[in-house]
Design brief:
The complex is a heterodimer of chains A (116) and B (111). Chain A is an all-beta fold. Chain A contains no helices and eleven strands. In chain B, the strands form two sheets. In chain B, strands 2, 4, 5, 9, 10 and 11 form a six-stranded mixed beta sheet that branches. A five-stranded antiparallel beta sheet of chain B has the order 1-3-8-7-6, with no helix packed on it. The chains are: A mainly beta (116), B mainly beta (111).
């Protein structure tokens, strides 16, 4: 398996533009997570899905952020409009449910977003 | 949700020495996990310990869990320069699958 695949690796955009981050989880994993990492706030859970259904989006900073998972092999995180404070590294991760063995989460390589 | 809190924040050791990091948490957990992150890279899962386990080993890694004190430690034995990275503990509560991270320990192993 190629692991969790995120695209793009780097994104530089101007303030006010729409940004879409993409994630392909590991086949067979039934959970998908979006995290954001900054120096100031560390790793923050934004939202997670179980079987393609959003379970908890309480970490989504505001209405400018939205996430979808149209099928088991694809998810997007969209920021519209983007702001400089959204600059961060965004990680996608997937896993089996803890009841099925708790093998830990597999993280993608992340998307480094810079909003200027 | 609660987050693990690692201690110390930064550690610099000589190659061959052991490195120990501690983590505390605040609520009842299903399991606790440790991850490594190399600079500019994603997180790599190292080891998972369940709430009914007290100690676990994986290669040069040893993890302990004390649920009465709500704390965990990660020991890396015979450290190598390649172990230089940030190490995060993260917890999963009962009833959900949220992984809540602490702020991380920066470990530098000097060759």
């Amino acid at each position: 398996d190629a692991g969790v695949i995120q695209s793009p690796r780097h994104e530089v955009t101007e303030m006010g533009q729409e940004v879409t981050l993409r994630c392909k989880p590991i086949s067979g994993h039934d959970y998908l997570f979006w995290y954001r990492q900054t120096m100031m706030r560390g790793l923050e859970l934004l939202i997670y899905f179980n079987n393609n259904v959003p379970i908890d989006d309480s970490g989504m900073p505001e209405d400018r952020f939205s996430a979808k998972m149209p099928n088991a092999s694809f998810s997007t995180l969209k920021i519209q409009p983007s702001e400089p404070r959204d600059s961060a590294v965004y990680f996608c991760a997937s896993s089996f449910s803890t009841d099925r063995g708790g093998y830990g989460y597999t993280f993608g390589s992340g998307t480094r977003l810079t909003v200027v | 949700s609660q987050q693990g809190e690692e201690d110390p924040q930064a550690l610099s050791i000589q190659e061959g020495e052991n490195a120990t990091m501690n983590c505390s948490y605040k609520t009842s957990i299903n399991n606790l996990q440790w991850y490594r992150q190399n600079s500019g890279r994603g997180l790599v899962h190292l080891i998972l310990i369940r709430s009914n386990e007290r100690e676990k080993h994986s290669g040069r890694l040893r993890v302990t869990l004390d649920t009465s004190k709500k704390s965990s430690s990660l020991l890396i034995t015979a450290s190598r320069a390649a172990d230089t990275a940030s190490y995060f503990c993260a917890t999963v509560d009962y009833g959900n699958n949220r992984l809540a991270f602490g702020k991380g320990n920066q470990v530098v192993v000097i060759p």
